[in-house]
Request: fold
Amino acid sequence: MVIKLEKVVPVGRTLDEYIKMFNLTENDGQKSILTVADGPASFNAEGTKLGYKITSVDPLYSLNTEQIKKCFYEVIDNIIEQVEKTSNNWVWSYYKSPHELRKNRERAISLFCEDYEKGKKEDRYEIGELPKLEYKDSEYELGLISHFLFLYSAHFDQQFHLDSIDEMLRVCREVRIFPLLTLKHKISPYLYFVIESLQNKGYECKIEEVSYQLQPKGNQMLKITQSK
Ligand SMILES: C[S@@+](CC[C@H](N)C(=O)[O-])C[C@H]1O[C@@H](n2cnc3c(N)ncnc32)[C@H](O)[C@@H]1O
Reply:
């Protein structure tokens, strides 16, 4: 066991991590983006300042800033302790140490909290949860989801994964998912079934290497597009 989590944790990443996890280009930055299960990531806060058009959706957004912060600080010590105890099982290229990892997660939630109330008023943070989204067909050009699908394969079954990805593809013309590994650092047991099922429905699925990595062999992202 590398890391054990009873439930999905409200821990988020930064804009730089999102750019690297999803191979985002300047052109992608011009698209309307839906980030699902975005939690206390600072992608929306930082990206909005750069002119990106981002909507984040997560069940966590039913809480206020203080409650979200409290949820984060209830879990972060335990996560970092588990990482410290298993530090040989992680790749220290992006972050140099568990301490730096923690600082980065704290930076992300701090930027998120500064932006959250304003972002809620601007409808940039919306309450919602997979496998159903309250958006119109093809409302967004690009859908991103990180550290939820595949990672939590032990918590959500194959049907949930299929339904959730179908729903994201209903709402977004292209969907990118990172990582493809579970919390045990193994390829998700659902990955190849999901890919085959999507290809049978006419989608193009491509596994791309990315420059972000914390889990060993965890430098791959799934890109799903409508076949031309
Ligand atoms: C580990 S965080 C990832 C945050 C962000 N995507 C990142 O990578 O920095 C996982 C998020 O999934 C959210 N979540 C839990 N169940 C969900 C569901 N059914 N649909 C969408 N999001 C969900 C949690 O509230 C949490 O914020």
Observations:
- The mean pLDDT is 96.
- The first strand starts at residue 32 and ends at 36.
- The CA atoms of residues 137 and 171 lie 5 Å apart.
